[in-house]
Amino acid sequence: MSTSLDGRKAVVTGGAQGIGRAIAQALADAGAEVVISDINGEGAKSAAAEIGQGAEGVTCDSTDAAQVERMLEDAAQDGAIDILVNNASIVPFIPWDDVDLAHWQKIIDTNLTSVFIASRKATDMMRAAGRKGTVLNIASNAFYAGTPNMSAYVAAKGGVIGFTRALATEVGKYGIRVNAVTPGLTESDGVKVSPHAESFGFVEMLQAMPGKGQPADIAKVVAFLVSDDAGWMTGQCVNVDAGMIRL
Fold this sequence. Notes:
Blueprint: E1 9-13, H1 18-29, E2 33-38, H2 41-51, E3 56-59, H3 65-75, E4 83-86, H4 101-129, E5 134-138, H5 142-145, H6 151-171, E6 177-183, H7 189-192, H8 200-206, H9 215-225, E7 237-240
Parallel strand pairs: 1-2, 1-4, 2-3, 4-5, 5-6, 6-7
Helix pairs in contact: 1-2, 1-9, 3-4, 4-6
């Protein structure tokens, strides 16, 4: 297997840091021309500069349909991109008693509606260009675990998994593949400065293998799933959490 992405144009949302940045690095290393999209535009540009290999960083709010559509049009190569990675996310830590409608809507918009917005535009462009592209959504094993203090997040990520399965069925006839990855607790930039950082010891006791998950662990699986090596896979959700959740 080669996992070569030579000549592919890829967009990674929320790619300024953490898992998204690691994914952008892995795709660039495999030969893809990567656009890192993030509401933190300076962070996206800094990440792109560090990655090199033709990577580009752009400012884009993943919940703003007009911004996303313009970003994907600008990134298009011969009418469409080849790879869309929907990674943009907010990971909250809020007890159920403190969850109000404003919080719920913000988390759903950022973690689920953004996936629809980008996928709607990207798959339309792929079909119009006759491109057999691929969409890869980042969900979370929190959906399977029902992790506390994250009710809106768990609901949103469950929606991402369901949407992945449905969209794969809708666009498979055009040669477009749609898959998802469910990371476990990962030692990313955001997690390290959040209350979730205190959970590694407990989570490690539940894992089949010891250790702390790293962004690169997720990125390697993503690079495989968007490559031709995974060309007979669609509608799948691949769990990457050292066996914490055994499906």
